[in-house]
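Researcher: Quick one. two chains, 430 residues in total.
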Amino acid sequence: MSDHSWLDFAASYALDTLSPEERTAFEAHLADCPRCQAEVRAHREVGGLLALAVPAQSPPPGLKGRVLREAARRPAARRMGSRMSGGWLAAAALLLVAIGLGVFGWTAREGRRAAERQLARTRSDLAARDSLLGALLAPDLAWARLTTTDAAPSIRLFWSRSQGLVVLAAFRLPAAPVGRTYQLWGIAEGGAPVSVGTFNTSVDGQATATFHVDPGAEFAVSAVTEEPRGGSVQPTSAPFLVGSWQAGP
Amino acid sequence: MSRGDERALAELYDRYGAAMFGLARAITGHPSDAEEVVADAFGQAWRLAESFDSTRAGTFAWLAMLTRSRALDIVRARHRRERVEGRAARATIDGFALPVASLAALPDRHAELLDLRTRVESALSELPPEQRRVVELAYFGGLTHSEIARETATPLGTVKTRLRAAMEKLRVALAAYMDVG
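Model:
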């Protein structure tokens, strides 16, 4: 399909009226096409303004308090000063820089000790699961810690290249809203985000999950976004957790 | 969470909460569902937004699309038995049309929203009726192309063409008010 033809999909995609097959195909194209991305952004803004076609109504008085209380319980995204419509990878990169400047100062040795402590904790949770144990004990273990610049939530990831397994342990992460899920992405140097898998947390804010990845996969960075249930082909929002992969011992 | 951020969220709610609640009611048809939708949408905005600039059209549009998505999710999840016909029947802007004079009585706090409202209403009224109907069904009913085609007894290709044409016209009509353009 020529580029022009793909542009025809932009308005429908922005309003989410495409069939699932069309949507998947278009999203695959969209990942590499700044022109179509710009079209989608413009049509999304038109769509947003259409909300003004119906009258506003005063919400029930308790709703504001509820909104503010729920916000107080949940972590906010890193405040960057740039808008949601900025490039996804740019947002991830900026967040990484912010984390690098502020929080991370780990040497390889500190990193390994921290990973071993986390490994011990995670191992006790996962003792019954053979494939996970295999991943965690692998000699080619790589690890990553995803965080915002605030303390919570955080996610630890372990990756055994040889076994093609990524193990995830999440803490203090509120459950995704109804109809939504969390999605883990791997990003190679200069590459587009690749989906590793989706997961959700239980009421206590914890989750453990195992994902199979291509043994040849090369991720420099991983990130988590919130997506519609079932996940997305490409991220549909800015990442709220990002971290870079470190080689293991 | 810093106090500045919480203040920004509160201001966002003060400015647009009523508009979002109105949108959620229009799509879901139930005040209790609309409450749920608004709480979800603002919660999601809080988690996802890199910054809140309540004064920008882009921020309003982004929040409105979030709200619309959450509203359509609830309609699909909670009213599974409701068929396309039900959603289609509810998705009619005419049912909500108010005389311009009473727009001033709406609980919007700021004048710029009032101006935008009249612009949007005017832009929609300039669409040919069949294009306007497709926009209503797609936007407020969350119908897919095929569902719209069945509902309006028109060919699929015609639906796609009409939606594209309508959105292009709306984009041109509203260009001066948009962030992205």
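The two ends of chain A are 47 Å apart (CA to CA).
Researcher: Thanks, that's what I needed.
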